[in-house]
């Protein structure tokens, strides 16, 4: 039962951190390209790798993995922003797609192997 | 205040995701992460829908639902982690299917959500 409490605490701070950081990034960039979502997701994937490296796959942490990083990164915004770019016939939809998915996996692996 | 709203939304979204993974885990014993796939695709549809309708609620509350609840309900870091875990365990084909289904079904459902929302919106203004 305490697990769900950890998930809730992590989710609370993960969502606020995502909103603050992506709002900050989007205010600094003036582009159709959703830099805010990209950077938040890549950072979250990297941190996920670091957490998994130190905690190992078996001890998936309710607070950090499911709550904090699960909520910090987001999938629904990526898909919606991609749809919007495709509808506007923007080629950057492909860049967005590659950076998010290939970059996300690459940065997760980097986080996983970076520390001894 | 806005931050508190989004935080509470995140709390709800993350615990909904957690609860669904537990329920699906009861009858789905395979290594394939069906739970996160269903959560993500469903969340993409809901976000598409909510983004294309005007809700008669406080904008802060709408943001708490879209950015907070749905944003935290769906997750990308788990997709990356699950994909690498599948490959590490030798489930290469499952890893490909998993990420392709997330992307393709997520796109289709987000689009359908937008279309569905817009249709409802038009119908609503005609009434």
Name a few traits of the molecule.
heterodimer; A: 116 residues; mainly alpha; B: 127 residues; 5 helices; 83% helix
Structure, described:
The complex is a heterodimer of chains A (116) and B (127). Chain A has 116 residues and is mainly α. Chain A has 5 helices and no strands. In chain A, helix 1 runs antiparallel to helix 2, helix 2 (35-55) packs parallel to helix 5 and helix 4 (76-87) packs antiparallel against helix 5 (92-113). Chain A is globular, with a radius of gyration of 15 Å. The relative contact order of chain A is 0.19. The model of chain A has no long low-confidence stretch (mean pLDDT 93). In chain B, helix 1 (2-27) packs antiparallel against helix 2 (34-51). Helix content of chain B is 83%, strand content 0%. Chain B has helices at residues 2-27, 34-51, 59-73, 77-88, 92-126. Chain B is mainly alpha-helical and 127 residues long. The chains are: A mainly alpha (116), B mainly alpha (127). Chains A and B meet through helix 1, helix 2, helix 3, helix 4 and helix 5 of A and helix 1, helix 2, helix 3, helix 4 and helix 5 of B.
Quick overview:
The complex is a heterodimer of chains A (116) and B (127). Chain A is mainly α and 116 residues long.
Q: What is the rounded Rg of chain B?
A: 17 Å
Overall number of strands of chain A: 0
Q: Given the helix and strand composition of chain B, which structural class is it?
A: mainly alpha
Give the low-confidence spans of chain A: none
The span between the termini of chain B is 36 Å
């Amino acid at each position: 039962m305490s697990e769900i409490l950890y998930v809730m605490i992590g989710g609370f701070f993960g969502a606020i951190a995502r909103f603050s950081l992506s709002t900050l990034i989007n205010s600094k960039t003036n582009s159709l390209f959703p830099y805010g979502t990209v950077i938040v997701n890549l950072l979250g994937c990297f941190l996920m790798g670091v957490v998994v490296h130190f905690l190992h796959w078996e001890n998936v942490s309710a607070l950090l993995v499911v709550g904090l990083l699960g909520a910090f990164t987001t999938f629904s915004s990526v898909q919606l922003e991609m749809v919007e770019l495709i509808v506007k016939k923007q080629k950057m939809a492909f860049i967005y797609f590659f950076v998010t998915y290939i970059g996300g996996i690459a940065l997760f692996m980097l986080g996983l192997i970076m520390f001894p | 205040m806005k931050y508190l709203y989004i935080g509470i939304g995140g709390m709800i979204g993350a615990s909904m995701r957690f609860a669904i993974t537990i329920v699906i885990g009861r009858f789905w014993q395979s290594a394939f992460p069906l739970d996160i796939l269903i959560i993500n695709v469903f969340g993409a549809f809901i976000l598409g829908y909510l983004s294309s309708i005007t809700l008669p609620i406080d904008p802060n509350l709408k943001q708490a639902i879209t950015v907070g609840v749905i944003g935290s309900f769906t997750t990308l870091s788990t997709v990356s982690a699950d994909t690498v875990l599948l490959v590490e365990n030798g489930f290469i084909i499952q890893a490909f299917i998993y990420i392709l289904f997330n992307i393709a079904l997520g796109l289709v459902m987000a689009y359908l959500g937008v279309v569905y929302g817009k249709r409802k919106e038009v119908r609503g203004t005609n009434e």
